[in-house]
Automatic annotation (TrEMBL):
Keywords: Membrane, Transmembrane, Transmembrane helix. This is Transglycosylase SLT domain-containing protein. InterPro entries: Lysozyme-like_dom_sf. The lineage of its organism: Bacteria, Candidatus Uhriibacteriota. It comes from the Bacteria. The chain crosses the membrane at residues 32-55, 67-88.
């Protein structure tokens, strides 16, 4: 009877993890939320497996085995609890502090025009409105370009470049190869609106919709004070409109580090546009070095000046631009 009960608990624990992981994939959880649900799933699998071993193979379940098992299970549940606590408290403070953000989020309201639209169509509408609102705010604040003195940032950075980079930052090669990359990103925007990708985090520390490092964000806040970026980089990178404004500023700042000849061609020459995209991923200094040493072959494997990750990033950018019908 005991063995049957343990077997049932083990089976339920293992099978119960799959719906949790399925929800992760369906909802597109990111960052801390992802860590919490995955930790819970693995804790359930591990606990079920340990119970089965202790019941059916008692000779294996020595005292050290039981001790290690309990430590692992406790660690997994502890990670989940800590993550959930951080997520809840961060959400509490973000909701209170974000009321101070002057850049309100874009919301696609349920109207006769949007009712019945698919998630991907709603996502496209949301993204277009988001870009337009960010540009309007930069223009209203008369944010001056560093790359083209006398012009405004809103008139120097191509919105299509920002859109393509947004997709590249939140697209996997698996989805690109399957032909579902663009649809998945648009559906996420359509379903989640201002919540989409706002807590996405990379292993190197890039964060939020724009996948921007804190040092980069803070430098932009100092360099473009008239843009009125939120001074708290964590909240600022979660706020969609604020994050997109930071992307426009970052690309303008990158152009300012190109040679005058390259700068003048950047809006019409695809070669130079790709340099900006690569710079967004690895830093414009690395790209400038590659161009200086290898000229037109700066992207080639024989040049070997760009990190493999950046080569892959450029491939994603080109595929996404083609699928979206943007300038590549």
């Amino acid at each position: 009877m005991l063995k049957m009960l343990v077997s049932l608990v083990a089976i339920i624990s293992v099978l119960g993890a799959w719906p949790i992981l399925a929800v992760v994939r369906e909802r597109g959880f990111e960052g801390v939320t992802f860590a919490v649900v995955v930790a819970l799933a693995f804790a359930m699998v591990f606990m079920g497996s340990v119970n089965a071993v202790m019941c059916f193979a008692p000779d294996v379940a020595t005292r050290p085995f039981r001790l290690v098992s309990r430590v692992v299970v406790a660690a997994l549940y502890g990670l989940a609890i800590l993550g959930a606590t951080f997520h809840l408290t961060h959400g509490f403070w973000a909701n209170h502090v974000s009321s101070e953000v002057t850049q309100a989020e874009v919301v696609v309201e349920d109207t006769a025009e949007t009712e019945g639209l698919a998630d991907s169509e709603l996502g496209r509408t949301y993204l277009e409105d988001l870009i337009e609102c960010a540009l309007d705010e930069l223009r209203d604040d008369q944010v001056a370009s560093h790359a083209f003195p006398g012009d405004l940032v809103a008139d120097t950075v191509d919105p299509e470049l920002v859109i393509a980079i947004l997709f590249a930052e939140h697209t996997s090669h698996r989805d690109l190869l399957a032909g579902t990359a663009v649809t998945r990103v648009l559906e996420s925007f359509g379903r989640r609106g201002p919540e989409a990708f706002k807590t996405a985090a990379s292993p190197v520390g890039a964060y939020g919709l724009a996948q921007m490092m804190d040092q980069t964000y803070e430098s932009l806040d100092v360099a473009y004070p008239e843009a009125r970026l939120h001074t708290d980089f964590h909240i600022g990178r979660e706020n969609h409109r604020n994050a997109v404004k930071a992307m426009f500023l970052h690309l303008d700042n990158e152009m300012a580090h190109l040679s005058p000849a390259a700068r003048s061609r950047v809006r019409t020459d695809e070669w130079q546009r790709r340099a900006l995209v690569a710079g967004y991923n690895t830093g414009i200094a690395t790209v400038s070095t590659a161009i200086r040493d290898c000229d037109t072959e700066w992207r080639s494997e024989t040049c070997a000046k760009l990190p493999p990750e950046t080569q892959e990033y450029l491939e994603k950018y080109l595929l996404i631009s083609e699928e979206l019908g943007l300038k590549g």
